[in-house]
Amino acid sequence: MTDAAWEQLSDQAVAMCGLVYFLALLAHLVEWSMLRKVPVEIAVRESVTAGGGSAEPPTAASVTPERTAKIAMFGRLGVLLTIIAVGLHFVALLGRGMAADPNRVPWGNMYEFTMAGAFVVAFLYLAMYRRLQLSWLSPLVLGFVVAVLMIDVIWLHERVAPLTEALSSYWLVIHVVSAVIATGAFTLGGMTSALYLIKARRPDRTTGYIARLPELRDLDRISYRLHAFGFPIWTFAALITGPIWAHEAWSSYWNWDPKEVWAFITWVVYAAYLHARSTAGWKGRNAAILALVGLATLWFNFIGINYFSTTSQHSYAAPAVAPVVPGRL
Q: What pTM does this model have?
């Protein structure tokens, strides 16, 4: 295939994966809307009865075996569509890398960085779906990925171009892969923390989406596990590989670059989050708020710096405002 054909394949795969993500979101929205008026305790009694227990059959007319099967079908359909969308998403990233001459990793500009970040969020969600029982997170994750891809395609899209001189390093793979994985874990953890705060305001609800979220202590535990997974990876990306790569590119480990400063601020916030939980017993609401502060600094560093700073040496990551000139930052 020619470079142009690979780029066209990538653009088509992005459009297709966005559509399939949207269909998966619709499937999960239908699933949860059908459960909206079914009390949680009735659904639990029904599942016990179906398993041979002695609980009395539910009296709610809306809870029937046919309806339960239909709800489960939409849930499985949503997961299947998400798997297909993640596969297409990977093809889009592969096509971007293969379209360049010479071939390269697919994160040479903000369009590709953002596409990769959305991919990791969706991939980590699927990877942890069964282990952490994340079915309740499906609408939020898919809504987030669809929104990010729309922004990426509409406002950040750039043509494939060779890597700039500063990015032509094997440290690009090491640094960016670790940073994006940590970003995906922190994003999922932040979503869980946000849902914790929402559920904490109405813990007595018996119907609707919020009522079917895990118990508050379970949401708090899942959020902590996701952040604990992402923190050492972020430490490796921001405080080890980043400075090493900066020294190789600019002959200095630390330049007080805005992205460097905000990466460090993000690290401090998440370090405070984990430290407070382990030593001061900060759990629940306070921990959730601190986690969301960390998420805000993370995404501001990821995208916001490119719009609010004119002094960053990471200008190769900013949206293109002029034709890309190979080898120029």
A: 0.86
